[in-house]
Amino acid sequence: MSISLQHISKSFKDVTAVKDISFEVKEGELFGLIGPDGAGKTTIFRILTTLLLADEGTATVANFDVLENYKDIRDNVGYMPGRFSLYQDLTVEENLTFFATIFGTTIEENYDLIKDIYIQIEPFKNRRAGDLSGGMKQKLALSCALIHKPKVLFLDEPTTGVDPVSRKEFWEMLKRLQQKGITILVSTPYMDEAALCDRIALIQDGKILQIDAPKEIVKHYPKSIYNVSANNMYKLIESLNEYQHSYSVYPFGEFIHYTDKRTNFNPEDLRKYLEDKGLKNIIIEPTEATIEDTFMELAK
Amino acid sequence: MKEKNVIQVKDLTKKFGDFTAVNKITFEVKQGEIFGFLGANGAGKTTAMKMLIGISKPTSGEATVANFDVYTHPEDIKKNIGYMSQKFALYDDLTVRENITFFGGIYGLSKTKIKEKAEALISELNLQEVANELVGSLPLGWKQKIAFSVALLHDPKVVFLDEPTGGVDPITRRQFWEMIYKNAHNGTTIFVTTHYMDEAEYCDRVSIMVNGKIEALDTPKKLKEQFNVENMNDVFLKLARG
Fold first, then answer.
1. In which element (H, E) is residue A211 found?
2. pLDDT per position in chain B (242 positions), as tens?
3. Residue from A236, A264, A267 nearest A252 by CA
4. How far is B197 from chain A (nearest CA, A)?
5. Average pLDDT, chain A
């Protein structure tokens, strides 16, 4: 196992950040921690990167114990924290050289690993890190986290606040790194990114709701979901929420994802109800659960 | 009711030196409309929004917000709009009630009005138990819902929301959008930016900025037809990737 956590708990004063968390990440796996702000994702990262001590439980990274062998862990992992943490007043190249030197290596020695990513910011290598755009900062931070050829890469919300185009490019980069044998633990609040991981842990309020491959997770969804739309979105939501048989009503893009309390649900009953409410152009059709549906059902 | 324009923009441009951040954008937003303002990081959204909320003077072009001109009446604009962003919305070291009182005061509401509004807001969001807690101790999703309500304290004609749901859990994100729908239904104009493309689908109309220009503007349905794709994410990728 590349990463292993057993019964890890951590509290800050009276706030429990993570509670009895256990999971394992295999070598070469791309594993996602999926959950909203405040779920405990960053606390897990800080414990695994030996920056924070757990109150209870044990954990190993690259087969090193987070307590006994913390120095070995630091030599063998790359960490990209959620907040941009490079030196703003050093240039792109200076930052990279700095991190290489700290780890006793050189840019040349591991250039192969970062080439794909670094080449995109190399034209700006004399620019100060503080003056880079969001996307470029992200690429520099990733380059710095990789320069010592880590066995395990920790990425804490690398795509938060990043537009869909840059997010897609970033995930393509991660896939290429994975092919080079690096184990990756990545966290994200974007449920659509979960589908790109080998396995994911859904996490909320410091607890793991479920761990599985993304395709398996959606299979666990217990109900039939329907796409519902009509001419007036606001009235539709209001009417569905008032419907005595409704179990859940969640906007999903152009549709509402609707589930019914009854096992013998007949969409025509609902259609009639909505028509009586004065709604027009009503569409009701079965659809498949997404990871987000599953997450919301588990978090309910 | 949806006929009156609350935002009117023509050839609006902002240059920084020889860099054109916003390049002749033109659009209007009607009363009660939910208008999605999308674009990649660095496309010029924030610069455009700053001009519309009266804190940055355009280089050229025209814009009125709530019938006030951005060049001549920026202070009147500020009084007649609400604003909230992901980065800053409320004071963490004030309680929920203190934040409401503070922002009510800033917007010039009377003491009785503030009291009335505070009670209404607290009961609507079910905040009775945390009304006297520091905002900093609340979950992000709660904060954002409170921030949105606070931005509406003075019954503005239009409210600007800059990535209001970033990092918020999926359930709260949807509750937030139900609040948006409700207020739009009651006639408040909503001007919103987001990186969640499913949220783009919730908007009445959506504009997409690429390198300072508005490259697409229509209902989500028509944009998907125009680009012949299934969802707004693909519209965005097609446009922004060029």
1. strand A207-212
2. 446 899 999 999 999 999 999 999 999 999 999 999 999 888 899 899 999 999 999 999 999 999 999 999 999 999 999 999 877 789 999 999 999 999 999 999 999 999 999 999 999 998 998 999 999 988 888 899 999 999 999 999 999 999 898 878 888 899 999 999 999 999 999 999 998 888 999 999 999 999 999 999 999 999 999 999 999 999 998 997 75
3. A236
4. 8
5. 93
- Domain boundaries, given as residue ranges, for chain A: 3-219, 225-299
**What Rg do the C-alpha atoms of chain A give, in angstroms?**
23
Domain-embedded: residue B215:
yes
Buried b (16+ CB within 10 A) or exposed e, B141-171: bbbbbbbbbbbbbbebbbbbbbbbbbbbbbb
Q: Do A251 and B174 touch (CB under 8 A)?
A: yes
Whether B39 is covered by a domain: the verdict is yes
Is residue A199 over pLDDT 90? yes
Q: Which of B169, B175, B179, B239 best tests the A interface by mutation, with the highest count of A CBs <10 A?
A: B169
Contacts of B170 in chain A (CB under 8 A): 36, 191, 250, 292, 295-296, 299
CB pairs under 8 A between A and B: 98
Paired tokens of A160: 């938060």
Q: Is the Cβ pair B169, A191 closer than 8 Å?
A: no
- Give me the residue from A35, A37, A168 closest to B237, CB to CB: A168
Please calculate the CA angle A200-A203-A208 and round it to the nearest 5 degrees. Answer: 90
CATH for A3-219, options being 1.10.3720.10, 3.80.10.10, 3.90.79.10, 3.40.50.300? 3.40.50.300
Determine, yes or no, domain membership for B203. Answer: yes
Counting the structural domains of chain B, the total is 1
Number of Cβ within a 10 Å radius of residue B187: 14
Question: Which residue in A229, A254, A257, A298 has the most chain B C-beta atoms within 10 A of its own C-beta, making it the best mutation to test that interface?
Answer: A254
Of A204, A234, A252, the CB nearest to B181: A234
Q: CA A70 to CA A75: how far, in whole Å?
A: 9
Segments forming the whole domain that contains residue B109: 32-52+82-241
CATH number of the domain that residue B205 is part of:
3.40.50.300
Other CB atoms within 10 Å distance of the CB of residue A137? 18
* Interface touch B196/A253, C-beta < 8 Å: no
Q: Is the four-CA dihedral A271, A273, A279, A280 of positive or negative sign?
A: positive
pLDDT tens track for A71-105: 999 999 999 998 888 999 999 999 999 999 999 99
What residue of B is the nearest CA neighbor of A191?
B170
Percentage of chain A with pLDDT > 70? 100
Residue of B nearest to A237 (CA): B178
Residue B27 lies in a domain: no
Pairing of strands B34-39, B189-193: parallel
**Segment 238-297 of chain A within 8 Å of chain B by CB:** 250-254, 292, 295-296
pLDDT at position A156 over 70: yes
Which of A 24-83 lie inside 8 A of B, CB atoms? 35-39
Q: Does domain A225-299 correspond to CATH entry 1.10.357?
A: no
